[in-house]
Structures are given as structure tokens and as C-alpha cells.
Amino acid sequence: MTSMIQLDNLTKAFGSLRAVDNISLNVQKGEVLGFLGPNGAGKSTTMKMITGFLSPTSGSVKIVSHDVAEQPVAIKKMIGYLPEGAPLYGEMTPKSFLKFIAEIRGLYGSEGRRLIEEAINKVDIGKVLNQTIETLSKGYKRRVGLAQAIIHDPPILILDEPTDGLDPNQKYQVRQLIRNMSADKAVIVSTHILEEVEAVCTRAIIIAHGRILVDGTPEELLLRSPLRNSLTVQLDSVDAQAALSDISRLTTVESAEMDQKDSNKAEIRVFPKKNKNITLEVSAMLSSRGYNIFNLNTERGALEEVFRLVTEQVAEVDEENE
Amino acid sequence: MKKMNKLHIVIKREFRAYFSTPIALIFICIFLALTGAFAFYIGGFFARGRADLDAFFSYHPWLYLMLVPAIAMRLWAEERKSGTIELLLTLPVSTGQAVFGKFIAAWMFCGISLFLTFPMWITVNVLGTPDNGVVFAAYLGSFIISGAFLSIGACVSAMTKNQVIAFILAAVICFLFAMSGVELVLNFFRSWAPAPVVQVISQMSFLTHFSEMMRGIMDLHHLFFFGSLIAFFLFSNIIIVELKKGS
Predict the structure, then answer these.
(1) Which member of A73, A77, A109 has the closest CB to residue B1?
(2) Is A186 helix (H, G, I), strand (E, B) or coil?
């Protein structure tokens, strides 16, 4: 299968700063790739190069095997792009703005009107069509920006923080929209909302300092979480010390520690040995001893934690190098 | 609906952008008021007792010096400041189409302002029998000179995100071009520059070219001068947009 988007050793330097440093990746049809990374990691710069707005210092971007540097206009037709901050012409109304976008993308007449109508319905901006864009709320502006990106039903969608500034319902709606459209498209979404990655992405990449640190499915990313499969036991603080030493003696347990303790409740965190599932064993043991258990919970691991772990490691290495 | 080309679509959007705020109307009012005021009070339109529009046209370059940079300043500075430049240049249009489209739209706006001075033409025809060929040539010359100022203003606008800086810089550069034929400026250059350079500089003067066009001398070399000047600044405009768009 040919890649819809192919980056080869893509690098962008601004002066001595390498904003994007030798990134290579492929995105196939049907994939929704999440770009994660701290602010200034190079996510937006990478997107700007994919869409042909910035030209790379070295390396290449290929869209459906055409080089962006060689056929910029042809490639721009295949891409729908929501730039960072969803910039729009504030003095226009969403209606005239979308008409402008449709026309410049070669969509006129009844077909053009139908596509505009569809985009308006998809992002639900029917109520504000005739208001000037600068008077709209942040959420509406973002959705006008999205409508602009999807109006021509492009095979490639590049969305820079599509849900920024939306309320929870609108976020849900936009994620739903991205998922529904993704079957026959290649989509790249940048975000720093990690739950979004689990909600919409089939694959996630963590970028920091312009380099790819991790590339995998959200599930694979979760596996890197140190808390993954660990067990939190909440129990009566009277039993806490005894329970802790009992748990520590289990052969499948790597370690156990007291997390919090106050006068009536205590929390113990239990880490299993590699690839062991200890939930059943621990709960059976604890109940057989008659401890007073309030709650027992197996952690899936949190992307937030993986994110912090991965990006902070890099920051430390970088500091040492300097 | 027939297919429109992309340049046409860019022009249409830009042109409408002028009229989506009251600024366009204010601008036109100021332009009309000032052209009238200059012609009647400073130019002595009536006192001259002649059926021509010299008193009216001779102040146009001075008005354009202030007003054209005001039209041009937003063209690129605003796009860069608001980030819409990223939207525009990731649509399937070339940078050249965007630059040219914006320029044409702004020039059309100048043209409309100029067209609305037609009561002057009617007045002079009612009062006497002017040489309408000369008047037409002067109108054309005035329109062309506004385009030349505009190409400078558009180019400067691409250099900065700040519209005020764009305005001032454009006004200064336009001033230099307008004044380069004046003895004061030429004397400054004569003191150190070789004679051919001084010759070239004096030839760059908008005022010299315009005063000839105003008298009805629509010589090819005037058209060639302004044509190549506009082409040069639009080409520079494209290059500056390409260089600056990411910053």
C-alpha cells in the first residue's frame, strides 16, 4: 500500500534552532495520527511543511507520492488544513468565507452549494452563518476553521489542535466527526489533550525538540506507563501496615508502598512483577485475612504519565549535553 | 455559473474586504474632500480662469503619498499578524496569484475613488470647453501613478506585521520616488554620485513623469517606466512574502 503522507528525513532549522530534526514517517489511508508533544516541540512546524506553507531545510514531504516542493498547488488541492489557532478573515461572515474557500478550490454552482451546506451541517454552524467571524465565540471560530478544512472532502486532513477552545460537548462532536471521516482519509491531528489521542487516534507520535520519541498505537503507549497494571488498594488504616507486609510477601509482587495514610483510610500501591496480573491474587489474599477493603483498582496506565516520562527524559539528556 | 479563475476570486475577496468596514467609505470621502479642497483653495481652480483641470491633478501625487500607503498597509501586514497568510497560501493558489490579486483589488479601489471625482470633469465642461483628451490622459496618468505608489506600499506591507510601520515606511519610500527629480534631492546626490547615477535618479521621479502625462503627453516611455516599476515591486513583493511568511 502506498503512503498517503511520507516524510523523509524532514528537517527545519530557524537559525541555529532545529525546530524539526530529521523526522521520517508514513501515514496510510484510514489512519488517524496524533501528534503529541510539549509546546515548541515542532508539531506545528512539521504540519506547515506537510501543507507546503514552509519549505524544509532538508528532507522531503511526499503526498500520494508527489513531492510537495515540486507540485505545491496540485498538492494543496488534496489537503484540508486547519492551521494553528484557526486563523480566519474576521471581517467576513462564515457564509461568504466558506463560499470563497469553495470557489478557490474550484467548487462552484450547485455542487459548491451542496458541499458548503454539508460542511456547515457537519460542524454545526448554521446559526451564525451571517454574523461576521470576528464577533463569534472561540468555539464557533474553530468550527468555521474546521468547515473550511473539510469542505472539499480532501483525502488528507491536517488539523492543528482542532478541539482547542471547544467545550466538552463540542469536543465530543468534533472527535466524532474526525472518526467518521477517517475511513478513507489520512489524518494528522496535533493536540496536547491526551484523552483525545485515545478517543480519536489509531496511532500516536510523541515529539519533543523536533524529534520523534515514541511511535505507536495509544495502547502501546500505555504499556510504557510505569503504573500500568499496578493495583491500588484502599483500606482501613488500622489494617494498613499488616496488609502492606502481607502483600509484599507475595511472589508475583515486585514492590508495594504506602501511598497515603490518614486516621481512617490508607492507600497501598502494588506493582506486579513483569507480565503478571496480580489483581485476583491480591484481592483473594486480602479478603481471606479479613482486612477491611474499601476499594481495589487496576490501573490502565495514563498517557499523561507516559508523556511526561518520555519528554522529561529528553529534556534531561539535552541539559546534560549542554 | 461559469468557472472563475483563481486570480479573479482573490481579487473579489480582497475588494469586498475594503467595503466590509466603514474605512473604505471614510477613505473615499477624505479623498474626494481633499482633491476638491486642493483644487479650489490651493490650486485656485476658479481664479485661474482656464477651462482645464491642472489645479486639480497637480496635487494628486501629494495626496497619494498619504492615502495610498493607507490603502496598501493592510494588504500583507494584516495577513501576517492574524495568521491568515497561512490559510491563504495553503489554498491552491500560487504566491504570485495572491500578490497580484491583492494589488489589483487595491488598485481597483483607488480607481473607484478617482472615478468619483467625475463631477470635477463635468464642472469644467459646463464652465468652458476643456481639451477632454488631455483630461483623460491626466486621469489615466493619475491612476497609473496611484498603482505605482500602491505596488511600493504592498511590497513594504509584506515586510512587517505592523500596519503603522508599513504605512510610514511606504510613505517615506513613495516620497523619495516622488521627489527624486527635485533639485534639492539631486544636489544632494550630485555632491558625491557620478553623473550617470544622478541622471538615473532624476529619471525615477514620479512628479516629472506625471507632469508630462498631465499635460496630455502619454508617451510610451512613461508607461514603460511605471509598468516596469510596478512589475519590479510586485516581483519583490512575491519574494518578500516567500521569505517572511514563516516568521
Answers:
(1) A109
(2) strand
Give the Cα separation of B3 and A51 in Å (integer). 25
Inter-residue contact B69 to B171 (CB < 8 Å): yes
Please name the residue that has the C-alpha cell 458548503: A116
User: What ipTM score was computed for the predicted complex, to two decimals?
Assistant: 0.87
Q: List chain B domain ranges.
A: 6-244
Q: What are the cell numbers at A22? A: 530529521
Please say whether the beta carbons of B13 and A93 come within 8 A.
no
How far, in Å, are A73, A247, A248, A255, A271 from residue A251 at the CA level? 64, 9, 8, 10, 12
pLDDT tens, residue by residue, B156-192: 999 999 999 999 999 999 988 888 877 777 788 888 8
Q: Grid coordinates in use for B107? A: 488598485
CB contact under 8 A, A54 and B9: no
Domain layout of chain A by residue ranges: 5-223, 231-298
Concatenating the DSSP letter of every residue in A36-70 gives E--TTSSHHHHHHHHTTSS--SEEEEEETTEETTT
Q: Enumerate residues 113 to 132 of chain B having a beta carbon within 8 A of any beta carbon in chain A.
A: none
| Grid cell 499496578 in the structure block, residue | A230
Question: Which architecture, in CATH terms, is A231-298?
Answer: 2-Layer Sandwich (3.30)
- In a mutational test of the A interface, the residue from B90, B241, B245 whose CB has the highest number of chain A CBs within 10 Å is B90
Kindly report, residue by residue over B39-86, the tens digit of the pLDDT: 888 877 777 777 778 888 888 888 999 899 999 999 999 999 999 999
From A48, A84, A104, residue closest to B9, measured CB to CB:
A104
Residue B194 near chain A (CB below 8 Å): no
Residue with C-alpha cell 498517557? Answer: A303
**What does the DSSP assignment read for B174-198?**
HHHHHHTTSHHHHHHHHTTS-HHHH
- Rounded distance between C-alpha atoms, residue B159 and residue B50, angstroms: 45
Chain B CB contacts of A20 under 8 Å are none
Q: Report in angstroms the alpha-carbon separations of B166 from B7, B67, B68.
A: 24, 13, 11
Q: Which residues make Cβ contacts (< 8 Å) with residue A70, sequence separation at least 6? A: none
Block means of pLDDT (10 residues each) for chain A, 322 residues, are 86 90 92 89 92 92 88 90 94 95 92 93 92 93 94 94 88 90 92 85 91 88 80 83 84 82 82 80 84 83 80 69 56
What CATH number was assigned to the domain covering residues A5-223? Answer: 3.40.50.300
Whole-angstrom CA distances from B150 to B77, B102, B116, B209, B211 are 14, 10, 19, 17, 19
Measured distance between the N- and C-terminal CA atoms of chain A, rounded to whole angstroms: 42
Alpha-carbon distance values, A84 to A87, B85, B87, B234 (Å): 7, 12, 10, 28
Contacts of A218 (CB under 8 A, 6+ apart): A34, A197, A198, A201, A203, A204, A303
State the smallest CA–CA distance between residue A99 and chain B in angstroms: 10
Q: From the list A72, A87, A105, which residue is nearest B83 (CB)?
A: A87
